[in-house]
Amino acid sequence: MATGFFAGHIAAAMPSIYKDGAGCGACFQVRCKNTTLCSSKGTTVMVTDLNKSNQTDLVLSSRAFRAMAKPVVGADTDLLKQGILDIEYQRVPCEYGNKKMSVRVEESSKKPNYLAIKLLYQGGQTEVVAIDIAQVGSSHWSYMTRSHGAVWVTDKVPTGALQFKFVVTAGYDGKMVWSQRVLPPNWEAGKTYDAGVQITDIAQEGCDPCDHHIWT
After folding, report:
1. Beta 84-92 vs 102-105: how paired, if at all?
2. In whole angstroms, how far apart are CA 213 and each of 82, 109, 204?
3. Residue 13 to residue 150: CA distance in whole angstroms
4. Is Secreted given among the entry's keywords (predicted)?
5. How far is CA 135 from CA 21, 61, 161, 183, in A?
6. Which is it for the CA torsion 153, 173, 171, 209, positive or negative?
């Protein structure tokens, strides 16, 4: 999933940001506070993994780390040598232009008894907190369970074409986003399908900006 997004500007985040996987896919603007080497703009990263270290809030890819440098020859290399930096960061909406959200069927899926999916290109500033699944045209919905990270699974896979309802955080509450036809009857593991919808909502949360530490 990770390296194709944001040109490799990705990060692992501490548990309070990763939120047992609910924070996977969240976007943050990050800038470092070394005025000699760091630009005032910083860069935007997407959280793709859990940072198990208690030393830092975020572990940035080297590409993202270097992107915080001033646009001066050699500044990115000098910044990378610092290793650990004082930074400030804040959550920002993920933006993918006109691209719709997609559903990727994970390789672990085994038709017809087991389905594992991952959401890609989820816009806005939200978290998916529940997913329901049903056959297209049916009102019999069943819930999926978060397996790990951004992966949701079910061992009660409906037959035929499949539709989804995504419950996401929005404002101070939540909302349901209905994707009425996503997976075809002959869905295949390893393939990605257009969800036909996009999320643009902004969830309200505290702490912005935050002063913390990161490292590469």
Report:
1. unpaired
2. 12, 38, 23
3. 14
4. yes
5. 26, 40, 6, 9
6. negative
Joined together, the tokens standing for residue 175 give 């909302």
Give the tens place of pLDDT for each residue, 127-171.
Answer: 899 999 999 999 999 999 999 888 999 999 999 999 999 998 866
Instruction: State pLDDT tens for residues 42-65.
Output: 999 999 999 988 788 999 999 999
CB 44 within 8 A of CB 4: no
Closest CA to 13 of 31, 26, 3, 4: 26
> CA–CA separation, 30 vs 25, rounded Å?
15
Show the CA angle centred on residue 178, arms to residues 175 and 182, nearest 5°. Answer: 145
Please give the structure tokens belonging to residue 203. Answer: 């969830």
In the numeric block, the tokens 């085994």 are attached to: 110
Write b or e for each residue in 29-60: b if 16 or more Cβ atoms lie within 10 A of its Cβ, otherwise e.
Answer: bbbbebeebbbeebbbbbbbebbeeeebbbbb
